[in-house]
Amino acid sequence: MNIQKQILLADDHVIIRRGMKVLMDNYFKRETIIEADSTAQILEALKEYPITHMILDMQLQDANVIEILPQLRTLYPNIPILIYTMSAEDVFGNRMLQMGAQSFLSKQSDEQEVIKALDLFFQGRPYVSTHLQELMNQSTNTHANPLLSLSDRELSVLNRLLKGETVKEISQQLDIKATTVATYKARIFEKLSVSNIIDLQNISELYKFKSS
User: Fold this and answer.
1) Using one digit for the tens of pLDDT, what is the confidence trace for 145-175?
2) Within this chain, do residues 32 and 125 fall inside the same structural domain, yes or no?
3) Are 154 and 184 in contact (CB under 8 A)?
């Protein structure tokens, strides 16, 4: 029996959402698509609709999905998640899978690869690119990309530092003490061997880390 899919599509760019909707309408049937552009809207949609699948960009209007993925996995453990993003596959691919996403798809993929990924995803099968699979099969080498050494929380703080938020603002947004944020900031600087925000921006650009 072909069950109606209720797909939550979250991306902060309306043109991406429209393009994905057209593609799914052309190649897949019996789906209803609910759109969101922020983590707040994701949580609202999950409460309001019987969502069966989630397709999420990482960088949304109000936060990075990495900040709410643990919450999504705790509250909705049976809803599969596909991460569809421009964020660096080398940095985030395996991390997102370890955090509970079933599939990771780069926005740099061509149309046929996107269709393949969605087909597997809707069948309940995981999708990762050949490149990401090769990375996962290799021994972790944090020296090649220092961003791999950052914890999930450190990545969240890094994302907000690159947006220009102060330690106080980050503490308010993440609901943690300012001293804790300062500690995370110091660890980030130490791990990435930088001493100021300009150097932090440069190394982030070098390894294709983009803030939301």
Assistant:
1) 788 888 889 988 998 998 899 999 999 988 8
2) yes
3) yes
